[in-house]
């Protein structure tokens, strides 16, 4: 994986975590990054399992939307456990 791919992956994670914080609360750069990166996996799995397809043409915005959905689910479930 090339260096710029890590930057894009990190940007998607930060943006998704930040957007999810508007719905479920929380804050902090590291928390945004972690929840966004985990959310990208969770969102991808949930959307694949449910068969939902987001009609977003831009690949970057599509990934941000999927990661945001996953981050919201992840943070909500984590708060239920703790």
UniProtKB/TrEMBL annotation:
The keyword Transmembrane helix applies. It comes from the Bacteria. InterPro entries: Transgly_assoc. Keywords: Cell membrane, Membrane, Transmembrane, Transmembrane helix. It is a multi-pass membrane protein. Pfam families: Transgly_assoc. One of its GO terms (cellular component) is plasma membrane. The chain crosses the membrane at residues 6-25, 32-52, 64-81. It is found in: Cell membrane. Belongs to the UPF0410 family. This is GlsB/YeaQ/YmgE family stress response membrane protein.
């Amino acid at each position: 994986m090339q260096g710029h791919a890590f930057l894009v992956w990190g940007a998607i994670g930060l943006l998704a975590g930040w957007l999810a914080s508007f719905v479920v609360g929380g804050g902090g750069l590291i928390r945004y990054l972690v929840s966004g990166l985990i959310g990208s996996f969770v969102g991808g799995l949930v959307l694949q399992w449910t068969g939902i397809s987001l009609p977003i043409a831009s690949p970057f915005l599509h990934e941000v939307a999927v990661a945001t959905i996953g981050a919201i689910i992840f943070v909500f479930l984590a708060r239920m456990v703790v």
